[in-house]
Amino acid sequence: MREVPPRNDFFVGRDRTLLELRDQLAALRPATVALHGMAGIGKTQLAREFAWRFAADYQLVWWIDAAGGLTAQAGVAAVNDALGEPVPAGPAGTAQAVVRALSRMAATGRPWLLIYDNVEDVQDVADLLPHGGHILITSRSRAFRQVGTPTPVEPLARAETVELLTRRIDGLDPALADLLATEIGDLPLAAAQIAAYLDTTPMDPAAYLGLFRAEQARIAALGHPVDYPRTAPPPRSGCPPTRSPAGHPRPPPCSRCVRSSRPPASRWTC
Ligand SMILES: Nc1ncnc2c1ncn2[C@@H]1O[C@H](COP(=O)(O)OP(=O)(O)OP(=O)(O)O)[C@@H](O)[C@H]1O
Ligand SMILES: [Mg+2]
Q1: Ligand 1 pocket check: which of 16, 17, 44 to mutate, most ligand atoms within 8 Å of Cβ?
Q2: Is 138 found in the same domain as 21?
Q3: 14-23 b/e with 16+ CB inside 10 Å = b?
């Protein structure tokens, strides 16, 4: 395991998704899956848990933070270095060397998993995808069809959000956790923010729910999960205002969206 972030002890759920992902990678050629979805939906956490859960299936698991093309290039250079390959000057030479090195590994029956996390644009990694192993990409963009199989990441199931909240917040009543989960549309980042806040303040969770309903965006931002970047990069384009069908709560299109203070309350604006 190289550069893979530590396992998240508070990771919940996604069991079926993780198994489906493993089957997908085993069956697909090229075995490249691009996990996509809105900010905070849990793409990075899913990839991270996949790396840890199935590490035994691989001889090499490498994690590259690809937020920004240059970072991706630097990460690939590190892979290259560790594999004992010469590092040719320039990004294109580096990419070619790593493609050769990992392809050789696969050809000699040594399976590998390469993870590009937080890719902003398919072009950032399009030339950095060796064959013969498994590649996981996480991105807010779904435009990865030219290099692999786009796979959407959905909000957590309700029971999973309740588990996340009750595991993280001492003594939280599951019924109250359910109400909080409704408010946040089962978005894991929002659940982690709530947990981070309530974990560090004496505020009563029921009082928090009342405040949250009144001032959702401001209150959610009070909590900061330690495993999420403090300044998440903005999505490529702003979200269009959206509203849900009457009576059906829906999650915000992105983590920066705020719920309308005027009716209908189900309207989100980025
Ligand atoms: N399955 C999970 N179990 C527990 N916590 C989770 C889970 N998924 C996500 N989280 C929490 O939500 C936060 C955001 O998740 P993550 O970083 O995976 O989002 P993302 O979809 O990669 O967002 P971005 O598009 O900004 O990169 C995490 O820091 C973590 O606290
Ligand atoms: Mg991410």
Answers
A1: 44
A2: yes
A3: beebbeebee
- Which protein residue has the closest C-alpha to ligand 1 atom 31? 192
pTM: 0.80
Which residues make Cβ contacts (< 8 Å) with residue 58, sequence separation at least 6?
A: 111, 112, 113, 133, 134
SS3 at position 177: helix
pLDDT tens, residue by residue, 169-221:
999 999 999 999 999 999 999 999 999 988 888 889 999 898 888 877 676 66
Domain count, the chain: 2
* Rounded Cα–Cα distance for residues 175 and 197 (Å): 19
- Three-state DSSP class for residue 118: strand
Q: Phi and psi at residue 53, in whole multiples of 5°?
A: -65, -35
Name residue 256's amino acid. Answer: R
Do 28 and 134 belong together in one domain? Answer: yes
Looking at residue 3, its pLDDT comes to 79
